[in-house]
Amino acid sequence: MNAVRYVKKAKKGNKEALLQLILAEKDDYYRLALTYMGNSHDAMDAMEDMIVRLYENIGQLKKEEAFYSWSRTILANSCKALLRKRQKLVPLDDAAMNSKLTEDLDLALPNDPYRHSDQQMDIRQMLLHLNEQQQEAIQLKYWHDLDYQTIADMMGVPVGTVKSRIFQGLKKMRELYGGETDG
Questions:
Q1: What does the pLDDT read at residue 117?
Q2: Which of 9, 106, 163, 178 could be 14's S-S partner, Cβ–Cβ 3.0 to 4.6 Å?
Q3: How far apart are alpha carbons 146 and 141 in whole angstroms?
C-alpha cells in the first residue's frame, strides 16, 4: 500500500482511501487503544472517536507521510479524553482488571507467543511501581514499538522528556527487582 497516495486521496474527501489507511493498521490501533482503556468495549469506542476525528481533520495534516504518527496521537488523545470524560481510571493494580485486559489482548493477538509468559506478568507487576507518565512511555516504546518522536507527539512532551521518563522508569524497575544497571 502506498500510504502517501491514499492520504492524498483521503484529503480530497475520498472516504474509501481513509478507510483503507485505517484498516491497514487496525490491529495496532486496537492494541494501543486497549492499552489505554483496559477493555475491548472502551477501546472500540476510542477507535470510533479516532475515525471521526481523522475524517473531520485529515485536511489539516500537513505531511502525508506522518499520517500514522498523527493518527496514533489522535487515538491516544481520544483515549485520554474518554477516560477523563467518564472520570474513569484504569485500575492497573486490580487483579480482575488485569485478567480482563489479558483476555482482551488474547482475543486481539491470539498468535502472540509472549501472551502467557511469566515474564510478561512480571513486567506488568513492575509497571505498577512507576508513575503514570513512566508507565505510558515504557508501554508505548516497548509494547507498541513506537519511536521516541511519535511517543513525544502522542504525550505532548519533548523527545528528551520521553527518553528521561523511560530511563527513570527502567532504572526504578531495575532497582526494585535487582536487575543489572548500566554504567
A1: 57
A2: 9
A3: 5
